[in-house]
Design a protein that fits this description.
six-stranded mixed β-sheet, five-stranded antiparallel β-sheet, single chain, alpha/beta, about 30% helix, Rossmann fold, 10 helices, 11 strands
């Protein structure tokens, strides 16, 4: 395997977004990043700020990367584009240009003879095209020489109070499959949501706001929701994305790109979920989240967090992968 001067595993961060997957692998494996690939300028800016990577190479558009120009590395991490498989998208899957990214990832895996990979996508991939899509992807990876396993994990069971179901793939080069099967991480206790809804200066929503009142009185919510009752419960989370208002206690619904309708109650006031809090809910720590807040706008940060992997989930998967690499040694 390729290692740095300190004999640590190395990895590359593809479709990196703001680097949640990177952070998870660094924490879970102590591995060293040798490059990343991202095309969204706003995400690149946040990535550089969070990870202090001004001098680290971004290889850019994954579809045009020449593998000969990439360094050798031990692990690929990639949250490949999910819009084409999502239940909220058109679900064109592998027929959509964004759905073709998996083929470029496989090309890099084969050309660089990468020993391991961790991939992430939306839960909708499981039943897309009656299961044909995921079978095609698994077969593609297996034909490239990898044992490939996958499992749907919910972030709320793996270190953050956010309900976020995603399918995770683990890949082990077949010539390294000498220590039995990969063991997925166990579920852990969900942390207290109040530790995450902790912005010191949250934006507030006036309960008498015209738009909010119109929403409360639409045909789905009229005579169903009493705002005064809602305001009595600190850290009650309120989702206004759908026509009907939904509430949650002890957890937050899935963060999504472009989703800005999550509120919560604190001190008898309605607070808007902030970009800082959304990063915490994805497993970033407060110091890194504060760095990001200083670099970009609140709306962009909410979208970037919604598009990210959950750090704590990747940390636990990669920790199990590290255990696997050490079996029998």
């Amino acid at each position: 395997m390729q290692t740095d001067k300190k004999n640590k595993l190395t990895f590359m961060d593809f479709c990196s977004g703001i680097g949640a997957g990177r952070l998870g692998i660094e924490r879970g494996m102590g591995a060293v990043c040798v490059g990343y690939s991202e095309i969204m300028e706003s995400s690149i800016k946040t990535y550089k700020k969070i990870h202090n990577t001004e001098n680290e190479k971004n290889y850019g558009d994954l579809t045009t990367i020449k593998t000969a120009e990439l360094p050798s590395f031990d692990i690929m991490i990639a949250g490949f584009p999910c819009q084409t498989f999502s239940i909220i998208g058109q679900r064109q899957g592998l027929e959509d240009d964004r759905g073709q990214i998996i083929y470029h990832l496989v090309r890099i895996l084969k050309d660089k003879n990468v020993p391991y990979f961790i991939l992430e996508n939306v839960k909708g991939l499981i039943n897309h095209d009656k299961g044909k899509t995921i079978r095609t992807i698994v077969k593609l990876l297996e034909n490239a020489g990898y044992y490939t396993g996958y499992k749907v994990l919910n972030s709320v069971k793996y270190g953050v109070p956010q309900m976020r179901e995603r399918v995770y793939f683990i890949g082990i080069k077949k010539d390294k499959l000498t220590h039995g099967k990969f063991i997925w991480p166990n579920e852990i206790k969900t942390p207290d949501v109040s530790e995450y809804l902790c912005d010191e200066n949250p934006a507030l929503l006036d309960v008498n706001d015209f738009t909010f009142q119109k929403y409360l009185n639409n045909k789905y919510n009229k005579n169903r929701v009493n705002v005064n009752d809602l305001l009595k419960k600190d850290y009650l989370v309120i989702d206004t994305r759908q026509s009907d208002l939904r509430t949650y206690e002890g957890k937050v619904p899935t963060l999504r790109t472009g989703r800005h309708g999550i509120l919560y109650v604190k001190n008898n006031m309605l607070c808007k979920l902030s970009g800082f809090e959304s990063l915490l809910l994805q497993g970033f720590d407060k110091d890194l989240s504060n760095k990001a807040v200083k670099e970009t706008t609140m709306q962009l940060l909410l979208s970037q967090a919604g598009n990210a992997m959950t750090v704590s989930v990747i940390e636990q998967i990669s920790s199990k992968l590290l255990e696997y690499t050490k079996r029998g040694s």
